[in-house]
Design a protein that fits this description.
- This protein is mainly alpha-helical.
- The protein has a single domain, classed as YqcC-like (de novo design (two linked rop proteins)), CATH 1.20.1440.40.
- The protein is about 60% helix and about 0% strand.
- It is built from six helices and no strands.
Length: about 140
């Protein structure tokens, strides 16, 4: 894809500015994007492995929920698939600042408890994402 020089300069400048805002070097900033991308792909793979991935898109009303994790309109696996993963991917694609405060693991442990140890890999990838972005890991199940 061809981008005019002025747009390329803007994208590079935005990336460098975001790195400075986040207190990271340009290299660290790029590594965080790559690590986040890998975790998003791993979460999607785990959802598929557990057969929690669906082709049925939630309704516009369900996606418009103001409740945390859209917990009043959809199960957590749908929120992960249709809200978290696309929004995080959009941030990565735009080279925007990634969230620094994220804590999904506690609700994931609760939501996926009925699946038992089969859900541990998914919960661990979610905990990995929490830890990468916020520097905290709030996980009570076995870390694998």
């Amino acid at each position: 894809m061809f981008l005019p020089d002025s747009i390329m300069w803007l994208l590079i400048s935005k990336s460098k500015l975001c790195a400075k805002i986040g207190g990271l070097s340009e290299r660290e900033f790029q590594m965080k994007y790559q690590q986040t991308q890998a975790l998003l792909q791993a979460i999607a793979a785990e959802l598929r492995s557990l057969r929690l991935w669906t082709d049925a898109q939630p309704s516009v009303a369900a996606l418009a929920s103001q409740a945390p994790f859209c917990c009043d309109t959809m199960p957590l696996e749908q929120w992960l698939q249709f809200v978290l993963l696309p929004r995080m991917q959009a941030l990565i694609d735009a080279r925007a600042v990634l969230p620094a405060q994220i804590s999904i693991c506690p609700i994931a442990e609760q939501a996926f408890a009925p699946l038992g140890s089969e859900a541990w890999p998914l919960i661990n990838r979610i905990a990995d994402l929490d830890e990468l972005l916020s520097g905290r890991r709030e996980q009570s199940i076995v870390r694998i």
